[in-house]
DNA sequence: ACATAATGTCAAGTTTCATTGACATAGACG
DNA sequence: CGTCTATGTCAATGAAACTTGACATTATGT
């Protein structure tokens, strides 16, 4: 399960700590999700999608998805 | 976090056990998710969405979503 | 060189998700 | 009635997500 978190965060010029605050989670959790240590829970995925005003499917990608282009 | 799992399952005339098999999880997990005991993980939510050929947002709803109509 | 901010990572702990196995209930069918 | 299927629920366990606290690394700026 890949994700575009780091990219979306960079577009807004937010640090991991800033994003963590906006999501109500720890900086380490943001880092762990960005670096692929684990996937967020579904409720957190919704909060992330809401924050960026995107669909969950536009942020989190099934493995292999987007690799074949 | 509400969901339309029970409805989607009924449309296809599947038992909880049948759905569990198709998702590769236990019958109790399907029941727990349907009855709101907990939310699925993000990867499982993707498998569910794939199975029904829907978006995650079309199956799982933020609390209060769809309540005000 | 020094200080600061940002990131990556580790350990140890709690909470949430998911498992198996078991048992109770309700409905349909002989 | 007995039996089979589906569902709901409990306990106990394990795995995954998330926490705080700490420390190392990298980059930026003075």
From TrEMBL, chains A, B:
<dbReference type="InterPro" id="IPR010982">
    <property type="entry name" value="Lambda_DNA-bd_dom_sf"/>
</dbReference>
<dbReference type="InterPro" id="IPR001387">
    <property type="entry name" value="Cro/C1-type_HTH"/>
</dbReference>
<feature type="domain" description="HTH cro/C1-type">
    <location>
        <begin position="5"/>
        <end position="59"/>
    </location>
</feature>
<keyword id="KW-0238">DNA-binding</keyword>
<protein>
    <submittedName>
        <fullName>Helix-turn-helix transcriptional regulator</fullName>
    </submittedName>
</protein>
<dbReference type="Pfam" id="PF01381">
    <property type="entry name" value="HTH_3"/>
</dbReference>
């Amino acid at each position: 399960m890949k994700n575009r978190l780091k990219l979306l965060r960079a577009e807004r010029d937010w640090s991991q700590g800033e994003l963590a605050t906006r999501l109500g989670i720890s900086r380490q959790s943001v880092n762990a999700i960005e670096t692929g240590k684990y996937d967020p829970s579904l409720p957190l995925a919704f909060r992330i999608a809401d924050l960026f005003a995107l669909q969950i499917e536009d942020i989190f990608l099934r493995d292999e998805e987007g690799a074949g282009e």
